[in-house]
Structure formats: structure tokens, C-alpha cells
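call fold(seq) -> C-alpha cells
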Amino acid sequence: IEIFSRIGSGYDIDIFTSPDGRDTIGNRIPAAKFAVSPPFCDASVFYLAYLKRTAWARKQILKGNYDLVYGSSDFFPDVVPCARYRKLHPESRWMQCVFHVYPPWFKRQGNALRNILGSLAQQLSFALAKRGADLVINLNRDVSRQLAGRGFQQDRLIVNPCGVDANRLQAISATRQPLQGCFLGRLALSKGIFDLPKIWRHVVERMPQA
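ret:
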């Protein structure tokens, strides 16, 4: 959202997303036109919904004529349509985001079946991106090194960390004392929420008032 809200005028931008994605973006990308996935894409179990969304997006994207396709995550509903378009339109360019690399399923905590399916899905996404993406955007150098170790070409890996709008934050007036710590993310094991008590113990050793 932050990237495409700053891309400027003179571009036609089509966004393929879910109803939640459409609500999240709102009016922040004025030039965008939206194709929103129908309800049947989400009316099922998690991975079946992914398959439905992939099939829908794969069909929708082929209706357009694009110079650039941009996969916003390494989940296969965001990768497979880009890979298909790039294959049928070799003159186009494909930029793919990868935010993380799953550990082996047997080392990852949580539901074993979901871990196996998640790992297999990411391997599929990586195989497609490795073969067809012109650039692979990473959030940090650690992920970039892991992808290079998995056979991605080093000259196609770009590190672009997430940023914040500092001016917007500074314009917000403080209503209470500054926070000494903040967690932002889904309340799930994979986000590290259960590591925080151990981390905070080290914080209060240095900052007893925290």
C-alpha cells in the first residue's frame, strides 16, 4: 500500500485482492482499480480457500495487459497468477515479495498438518519465483541469504526493509507518557508473542521502571 500510494500519476494500477484487502486499502491508492475475489473464495477451510483464490486470480489477471506484475507475498495465491502471466507474456516483468522462509515443518511449532502444507506451498512458490521472477524483494538480509542458499540468483535479490511514515507519526500529539515497549502483529505463535515474557525479563533488568 505504501509503495503504490507513492508511485505518482500516469500509471494504471489494477489490484487483485480479497474484500478485507479492499477495505484495508480504502482510498489510499487513488489510481487503483480493484478486482475483488467473490465470497466463495473464502467460504471453506483455510487451504481450500487459498486454492479457490489462486484459481480466481489466475483467471482474472489474464484479462489485463501489464508491463509489470507485482506479487505482494510468497503465498501461492499471490505467486501463481504472476507466474502464469509472466509465462504467457514474456515481455512483461515480474517483481515478487518474499517476507520469510519457513523452517522445516518438523521444527516449527504448531499444527503438524498445517506446517507440512505451508512448507509445501512455499516450496512451490519459491520454485516458480526462482524460475520466472525478474526481482525478488526481501525485508532483510537474513532472508536474502537464505534465498540465495536455496538457489535464487543473487543479482535478482533486493533488500527493501519496511518503513514508516515518520512525518505522520510526529504529527500525532501524545496523549500519555511514551510507551517503553510495543508489540504489533497477529496474536499467533509464529509472530513471537510467546517470546515476549522472556524478552521483557531482560528489558527490566536494564530498565526496572519498564
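Strands lie at 13-17, 32-36, 68-71, 93-98, 135-138, 157-159.
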